[in-house]
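subagent[fold] <- orchestrator: predict structure for attached chain, return tokens only, no commentary.
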Amino acid sequence: MKGKKMLKLLGRFLIFMLACTMLSRASASLTVAVVQTTSPGKMVISHRVFAAGKVEGNQERAVSAQAGQKISQIFVQEGDLVNPKDALLQVDLQTLREQIAACDQGLEKIELELADLESARNIQEEKRELAIRRAQEDYQTAAAKGDQAISWAAYERDQAAAKLKEYYQNTELEQEEEDALIQEFNAAQKAYEEAVAAREADIQAAVRAMEDAQEKEPADSSAQLKKIEAKEKQVQRRKLKKLEKAEGKILSPVKGTVTKLNVSVGEWTTETPLLLLADLTTGCKFTAQVEQEQEQYLEKDAPVTLTNERKKLRVENLKIHSVEANSEDSSLLDVCVYLPADTMSIGDSAEMTVEQKSQTYNTCVPIQALHEASGQYFVYVIQEKDTILGEQLTARSVKVTVQEQNETYAALDDGCLSSSQKVITDSSKGIDEGSPVRLDAS
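subagent[fold] -> orchestrator:
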């Protein structure tokens, strides 16, 4: 009886212990964090940049007219699409024809002035040639006259010298006669010297007169300036006649969109363009602003996709043309994408998507699995641990090095984790190193 009683007590104790174990496990299951896991795998890390912007003209054309025209009509307004040779504005025809008539009168006046200048130039040239001829004649006359005077003075001097010589050979002559002969010779010598000096002075005066006559006239550009003025008048007249032929209408040179009007009806044209056209034949450009920190993903020629939700339009295989600092806000970048012709219209809004793909990384995990403490990244992995209640799953932290990441995934250095390890990506409650966990059965 005693043995049976002991067996009953032992059985009750074992049942009690089993119930306690079951209660303990049930309690643990209610307090242990429920986690979701994944295994590291190969992946390409993509970086996407989104930005809203507008379509603008790629190239603007200025439309001008001859200055001084009165605008009588305007056929377009900003934002209008125009085709080549469409009428944009109308100028006053009466004013235009008056200006053509003024040009004709101006050209006629210039022709008369040129004729007068040519006549005056011919007369001046004739006077110059006459002065040169007369100076040459005066030179020849002075030379001949001087030679003759010198020759006669030399003859008189020689005669006086001969008489004086004859006197000295005849000693019977009186002393008074000697003085007279000497005076006669001296007078003849002086006359000869004066004749030589007079010839030299006359020749020098004649040479200077010839030099003065041959001196070039000062430069006179009057005729050339008049010819330039005439050419300008002719160009102006051709432009006015061309405008008259078009019945005073200023036509569009290209297919484009009017981006700016600079005149109103009744105003007079100046050198300032009348209006600006976005030239659609050269295509359009999309421009958007993005944050400065996105610059590393916005290199030139990076692939771009543009989406216009209103028109249900998606344009792919575009490329970034340029990335430049915004002139007004240094924290922004201006991104420009050229569009082919007839892709989008000027003024359209669109959203830009730029996607840059990395190399293939061997060890990638979801970004929510990544944790950071004191500048060091780590992840939690599942680890089995023996306890008094049997084998239990716990969380173990593993330090990792991040090579690249985006908003969804992180690429880790090879060797940080193996492909068989289970990385905790989500937990029903906070966990630490060694925290017991259980896998989400769902």
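orchestrator: received. Logging for downstream: The chain is about 40% helix and 35% strand. The first strand starts at residue 33 and ends at 38.
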